[in-house]
Amino acid sequence: MRRDEHVRIRMTNRSPVVHPMHLHGHFFRVGDAVKDTVPVPGHMGQVIIEFHADNPGRWLFHCHNLYHLDAGMARVLRYVE
Question: pTM to 2 decimals?
């Protein structure tokens, strides 16, 4: 992502398990709510998060179920020039 960009991420959960997804370094909007963690329901549940890229760096985006995090359910979101 780039500084000052409007970022929108759509998550679709293809598993039967709820995934509480957490983003470090930013708060995001889900509808009218402001959060840093959002549950993505199982069975093809979808959630869209949106935020303003105003905190440059590398930020971990991961499932808060620790056994999912340990299994690699995480990505680093980073700013590019």
Answer: 0.92
User: HEC profile for the chain?
Assistant: CCCCCEEEEEEEECCCCCEEEEECCCCEEECCEEECEEEECCCCEEEEEEEECCCCCEEEEEECCHHHHHCCCEEEEECCC
Q: Tens digits of per-residue pLDDT, 32-45?
A: 999 999 999 999 99
CATH no. for 6-78: 2.60.40.420
Q: So where are the chain's domains?
A: 6-78
Distance CA 8, CA 27 (A): 12
